Amino acid sequence: MRGASIGRGEPSGPASSVSLAACNTLGFAARARSFSEPDSIEAARQQVLAVQTANERLIVIGGGSNLVLLPWLDAHVMRPAFDALTIVPSQDGLSATVHVEAGRRWHDLVMTLASQGWWGLENLALIPGCCGAAPIQNIGAYGVELADHLLRLEVMSLEDGSCRWMSRDECQFGYRDSIFKGALEHRVLITRLELSVTREATPRLGYGDLVRRVSDAMSGELPTPLAVANAVIATRSEKLPDPAVLGNAGSFFKNPQLPAGQVEALLQRYPAMPHFVQADGSVKLAAGWLIDQCGLKGVRRDHVGIHSQQALVLVHFGGGQVSELLALAAEVRDAVVTRFGVTLEQEPRLLGAMPD
Ligand SMILES: Cc1cc2nc3c(=O)[nH]c(=O)nc-3n(C[C@H](O)[C@H](O)[C@H](O)COP(=O)(O)OP(=O)(O)OC[C@H]3O[C@@H](n4cnc5c(N)ncnc54)[C@H](O)[C@@H]3O)c2cc1C
Description:
Strand content: 15-25%
Radius of gyration: 21 Å
GO biological process, one term: regulation of cell shape
Protein name: UDP-N-acetylenolpyruvoylglucosamine reductase
Helix content: 10-25%
Order of helices and strands: EEHEEEEEHEEEEEHHEEHEEHEEEHE
CATH class of the largest domain: Alpha Beta
Active site: 176, 251 (proton donor), 347
Strand order of the largest sheet: 6-7-12-10-11
EC number: 1.3.1.98
Number of domains: 3
CATH topology of the largest domain: Uridine Diphospho-n-acetylenolpyruvylglucosamine Reductase, domain 3
Keywords: Cell cycle, Cell division, Cell shape, Cell wall biogenesis/degradation, Cytoplasm, FAD, Flavoprotein, NADP, Oxidoreductase, Peptidoglycan synthesis
Bound molecules: flavin-adenine dinucleotide
Oligomer: single chain
Number of strands: 20
C-alpha cells in the first residue's frame, strides 16, 4: 500500500494533513486528514478497518474528474490503486465477460477492448476517471450508458470491510444516477465490475457526426469498435476542454428531464428549443442550450468561466478559489430559472467544507 504520498505544505488544515490539489481535475486547493492508495482489495479492507478503529470518516475517490472539492475534507481519503483486468471469452468466442478492478482508468479499459475487436464500450471512449467510479453516475455518452453493459459489481462496506455482489437492478441506475448517489452514498467502496462485450458488430453512430467520421476512416470497409472509439475521441477532443490544460469537471449540470406539459408550454415561447422525448413520456432538454440562451456561454468571472465551445462546462483558469466557481454556478442556475422556470441540477459531487 502506498501511504500519504501526495503533496504537503499548503497553508490550511492541520499540520499532518495532505493536499488533494492533484486529485481533482478542477485543480482547486483542498486538504484532507490523511490519504492512502491500497494496491489490492485486501489492502483496502485493512485500511477500511483501520479508519473505523480510529473513528474517522472515509471518502473514496478515483480520478477526481467528477468532484468539486471544498478546501477541507475532515476524512481519510482512499484512492484505489488495484486495477487488474481479465477478459473471459464465452465457449463459442462470440462474447466475453470483462472483470475489471476499481483503479483502472476507464479510457484504458475502453481502448483495450476496442483494439481487441470487442464491441460494447467504444462510445464511452475518453471519459476521464476510474472504473470504480463509472457506476456512481452511470456514465454515458453518444447514446450508450454503463448500465447497458454492466452485469454486476462488488462493493465493500465502509463500516465493516465486508464484500458483496450487487446486480444491475440493485444499483438502481438512471440518467447520471444510481443508488451510490442516494442510499449508499459514501457507504461503500466499489471494488470491481463485471461487464459484457460481444464480437457481434453493433455500431451506434446516431449521435453527432460519428457516421461521417467512421465511414471516412473505413473507406467502404465495415466499421470496427476501434474506428468508432477513434471517431468518439476526435469528436470529444474538438468540443471538450482537456482537464490537463484547463481545469474542469466535464458537464457541470445534468440535462433537465421535465413533464411533457411543461415542455409544451416552453415550446410555445421557444419553438427552436432542442428537446428529446423519453421512453416514460417525460422530455429531456439540453442544459447547454438553456445556458447559451441566457447569454452566458464564454463568460469569464475572474479565475473561472464558462467554456466558449460548450456552455455546460464550467472552467477554472487557475489560481482561483472554489467559492468563485460556486458563485458562477449559482449565477447560471438563477439565470436559467428566471428565463425558463427550469431548475438545473449540479452533476459533479460536492465534497468537504469551507473553513470556519
Ligand atoms: C472533460 C470531462 C469529460 C467528461 N465527460 C463525461 C461524459 O461524457 N459522460 C459522463 O457520464 N461523465 C463525464 N465526465 C465526468 C467523469 O469523468 C465521470 O463521472 C467519471 O466516472 C468520474 O470518475 P472519477 O474516477 O474521476 O471519479 P471521482 O471524481 O474521483 O469521484 C466521483 C464520485 O464517485 C465516488 N467514487 C469514486 N470512486 C469510487 C469507488 N471506487 N467506490 C465508491 N465511490 C467512488 C467519489 O466519492 C465521488 O462521489 C467528464 C469529466 C470531464 C472532466
